[in-house]
Specification:
There is one protein chain. By secondary structure, the protein is an alpha+beta fold. The protein contains twelve helices and seven strands. The chain has helices spanning 7-21, 44-49, 55-72, 123-133, 141-159, 166-177, 185-192, 196-207, 211-229, 234-240, 246-257, 261-268; strands spanning 2-5, 24-29, 34-38, 76-79, 85-93, 96-106, 160-163. The chain has a five-stranded antiparallel sheet, sandwiched between helices. Strands 1-7 form a two-stranded antiparallel ribbon. It is elongated, with a radius of gyration of 23 Å.
Length: 270
Amino acid sequence: MIIQYNAEQLNRIIKNIFVLTGISISILDSNYNVLANCSKEQDFCFLSQNFDNKKKLCSQCDQELLKQCRSTKKLECHICWAGLYDSAMPIIKNDTVVGYVIMGRIRSERSPALPQFFPNADLQTVEQLNNLYYKLPFMTEDKLTSLYDLLSYILFEPSIQIVYDSFINEAINFIDMHLHENLSVSVLCNTFHISKNYLYKTFSDNFGSSVNEYIAAQRLKRAKNLLTVDNEPIYIVAEKVGIYNYPYFCRWFKKRTGISPKEYRKSSRK
């Protein structure tokens, strides 16, 4: 598996986002290397990081946020030591984490009225920090979540691509076309005339998961989509993703999402 990043396109997109919102944004690859970055050079964070050795503290906050994001594979947010809202979200393609988006230097509803973290600063520095603090963009957490949703469409799809070898492409296409059938390791091995060991290793190397975990993830993704866009009975949805036991499908779905298929359909249409 090869991950291809269009750094020029990524930089152009996040620059436009920065111009529109004022929010600092960075794109990292799967190993945390910076691919694109856009932020204001002289702002509250720039001054505070270079005061009283706070730059190290900022770095630690970012590392903790990314570590949590890598662990959960979900959008993670926190209030940094300076009271600002920081967030990180994994970029996921074909169930593989291919990078991360970090947005920060934002005041939110949870930020303090004034920065109160510089007891050793003189009056001139405090005044300068206060002025810069209120020049930082303010955004509600709901709006930030919506912005992340938009990014997944305008940023990730055209700018980051995964290139698989010919077998993986054939295998994932076969799985996609036959999700409604009885898919198993034996079926795939017989179809492609390969050993189980080769199949296990190839999926582990490319997706970091077993074959059965990959199939389950694709079934769940399709079930969510069908529950959102179709009005068919839930047992029909279950059959379309290859699970013909309706009670088992409901238990299976709730175990992976925390809610029943009926509840998911209702919540997705609000």
